[in-house]
Design goal:
Helix content is about 50%, strand content about 15%. The longest helix is centred in the C-terminal third of the chain and has 23 residues, at about 185-205. It has a single domain, classed as 3-Layer(aba) Sandwich (Rossmann fold), CATH 3.40.50. The chain has helices spanning about 20-35, 50-60, 85-100, 115-120, 135-145, 155-165, 170-175, 185-205, and strands at about 5-15, 40, 60-70, 105-110, 130. Strands 2-1-3-4-5 form a five-stranded parallel sheet, with helices on both faces. It contains eight helices and five strands. By secondary structure, the chain is an alpha/beta fold.
């Protein structure tokens, strides 16, 4: 079976889909857009295909993937259960990259230093990007992971983040949902982030 085509600018985001992660979710979308990348999430693909199949297809079609393990913790709702979706999808990406090293590169994100060595000791030797659970931490670490000449400053990226965040209520109202991870909301949020990035680039070239 032929391998799927790769989008060289696409970045698959393996992140928790919950309200407490909203700000970091927006930061990832805005930061990647500011750096010229196309963020992708599994729920951003409409259709009835099984989630695991969507995730695998996304990993295979994206040149990069970011795996945020900062929320692999016990949930508050009973029964208390750790969240394993993110490690599972990370394992899929690692396997795909091992088989096809020129087609995929994965990155690890965490909020707390040295926690990865305890939670996933098999990854000892892999340096995660530590965002500290903050928006500016995510933006700063994105610049460190994807080093690009002429990349916007963290301050410029923060300005772009604030603009995108100011559109959230309107995007949700237009979509008729409060789910920030819904496919239509994700698409609109990416459109806003790309528009801000384009205007930033135009301002820099004037």
């Amino acid at each position: 079976m032929p391998l799927p085509p790769i989008n060289p600018n696409a970045v698959f985001l393996n992140i928790p889909y919950d309200e407490e992660f909203h700000k970091l979710y927006i930061a990832y979308i805005v930061g990647l857009s500011q750096l010229g990348f196309d963020p992708r999430i599994a729920s951003g693909i409409p259709g009835g295909e099984r989630r695991l199949d969507r995730v695998l297809s996304l990993i295979q079609s994206c040149r990069y993937s970011i795996h945020d393990l900062s929320r692999v913790e016990l949930g508050v709702a009973p029964p208390a259960t750790p969240r394993f979706n993110m490690p599972l999808e990370l394992g899929m990406a690692i396997t795909w990259a091992k088989i096809n090293p020129k087609r995929h590169t994965w990155f690890l994100w965490e909020s707390t230093p040295r926690r990865l060595q305890k939670s996933m000791s098999d990854l000892d030797g892999t340096d995660p990007y530590i965002h500290g659970g903050t928006v500016d931490g995510v933006l700063s670490e994105l610049r460190n992971a994807f080093v690009r000449v002429g990349a916007p400053t963290v301050q410029a990226m923060m300005d772009a983040y604030r603009i995108a965040e100011s559109h959230i209520d309107g995007i949700l109202a237009g979509a008729g949902t409060r789910n920030l991870f819904a496919a239509s909301v994700f698409k609109e949020l990416c459109f806003v982030a790309e528009d801000v990035a384009r205007r930033t680039t135009e301002d820099l070239t004037k």
